[in-house]
Design brief:
Elements lengths: L2 H14 L4 H21 L51 H14 L86 H39 L9 H11 L32 E4 H4 L10 H9 L4 E7 L4 E8 L3 H13 L5 E2 L9 E4 L3 E8 L2 E8 L3 H15 L7
Antiparallel strand pairs: 1-2, 2-3, 3-7, 4-5, 5-6, 6-7
Helix pairs in contact: 1-2, 7-8
Protein name: DUF1707 domain-containing protein
Keywords: Membrane, Transmembrane, Transmembrane helix
């Protein structure tokens, strides 16, 4: 079997699908390699195509009329042929058709004893020129136009692994863009005003939905307000009296002290009441030199004494008991009720750490205490009266002495 027959068999097997294209190329290359190797090792070159049976070689295609053959393809200008390529050129239907037509025109009339060789249009390797006297060489003759072989059918390749079925013919970025529609639908062909009409319909639907939700919220709010105000009509506003109860200490009506006497006392000692108990050695009248001297401590703090001196203090009277509890009574003679009220306010403001005791206070007579110390001051006919009690049972003693003192000299300033 010649290499041409092997190539035909390969073509038939490829067309029938019994071999793959890769196997076809490998086997074809092997056949062509063997054919090329056999031609290189032969003693004589084969007869050129187109040489008649009589031995006279026909002019080669491309040989000029002068008889000198043209340079063969692949032969350099120096005349030394290059090493032939064992692989055939790439197949082309146009080149194969042109080659077949050219060979048919150049072939002479067939001889009865000639061996017919059907050329392979797919791969026809170049043949060595044959000498006319070689009787054992095989002459290749194309005496009749052979039909072109059917093109080999492509084998049915199964789907490659790793490639899923194409589900969408959209753009590669179609999954990243919202609102894409299939080409099979008529909506994707909309252009111009149709697009805005569709968008307008969707916008109206969203607007209606938003208005509906807003209406429901407004209705719910109205119902809640009605329920709130309706339930508020029930007669249960009990917490309101609490502010009144808390404000009672500031709005408490203090009791009235005894009525003021029409005339002031005639003597300083008549301003204060007598208190039983051990008497202090300084008890008695007070004058300015003694108040500014060794008896300055009877009127504390010093700011009160300074205020009294600045507002016209003339004289006074001092009474104190040393027995527990201690009781101190002090009367300061001022030129007027206003001057006396100024000294009273300074005295009460200077009592740091003592709180107002409204249960013991009267109008114009404010009492301050700390639990074991009770003090007060008021003005009567230009006199400043100060009452102080401290120690055990100081509250009972202070209450009793204050009642007697108010009866002896009632206040004339009751603001």
């Amino acid at each position: 079997m010649t290499w041409q027959d092997e190539l035909q068999n390969l073509d038939a097997e490829l067309a029938a699908g019994r071999i793959s294209a890769e196997e076809y190329r490998q086997r074809r290359d092997a056949v062509l390699g063997r054919a090329q190797g056999g031609q290189d090792g032969s003693a004589g070159a084969q007869q050129q195509p187109g040489t008649p049976a009589g031995g006279t070689p026909q002019q080669q295609p491309g040989t000029p009329s002068g008889g000198l053959p043209q340079q063969q393809p692949g032969t350099p200008a120096g005349g030394t042929p290059q090493q032939s390529n064992p692989f055939p050129p790439a197949f082309s239907w146009g080149d194969a058709a042109a080659q077949g037509a050219q060979q048919q025109q150049q072939q002479p009339a067939p001889s009865g004893e000639a061996t017919q060789v059907v050329p392979n249009p797919i791969a026809q390797p170049p043949q060595q020129g044959a000498t006319p006297g070689d009787s054992e060489s095989t002459q290749v003759v194309n005496f009749a136009q052979q039909p072109w072989p059917a093109p080999p059918q492509q084998p049915q390749w199964g789907p490659q692994q790793g490639w899923g079925a194409v589900e969408s013919t959209g753009t590669p970025w179609g999954d990243d863009l919202p609102g894409g529609q299939d080409h099979g639908e008529a909506a994707w062909m909309r252009q111009g005003p149709e697009v805005f009409e569709t968008a307008g319909k969707g916008g109206k639907g969203k607007l209606i939905a938003g208005l509906s939700i807003g209406g429901v919220l407004v209705v719910g709010l109205v119902v809640a307000l009605v329920f709130y105000f309706t339930s508020g009509d029930s007669p249960a506003p009990a917490p309101e009296p609490e502010p009144t109860a808390q404000g009672q200490p500031t709005t408490k009506q203090l009791p009235e002290p005894p009525a003021a006497k029409p005339a002031p006392p005639a003597n300083p000692q008549d301003v204060l009441v007598n208190v039983p108990g051990p008497q202090h050695p300084w008890n008695g009248p007070l004058d300015l030199p003694s108040l500014q001297g060794h008896k300055a401590g009877v009127l504390q703090p010093k700011s009160v004494l300074d205020t009294a001196l600045q507002n016209g203090l003339t004289d006074g009277w001092f009474t104190k008991t040393d027995g527990p509890p201690q009781v101190t009574l002090l009367a300061l003679h001022m030129p007027s009720d206003d001057a006396a009220k100024t000294v009273v306010d300074e005295y009460l403001d200077a009592q740091q750490g003592l709180a107002v005791d409204e249960d013991l206070s009267y109008k114009g007579v404010e009492v301050v205490s700390t639990g074991s110390t009770f003090r007060t001051a008021y003005a009567a006919h230009g006199w400043v009266v100060i009452v102080d009690s401290s120690g055990d049972q100081a509250e009972q003693t202070f209450t009793s002495v204050l009642e007697q003192q108010l009866a002896q000299t009632p206040p004339t300033v009751r603001d």
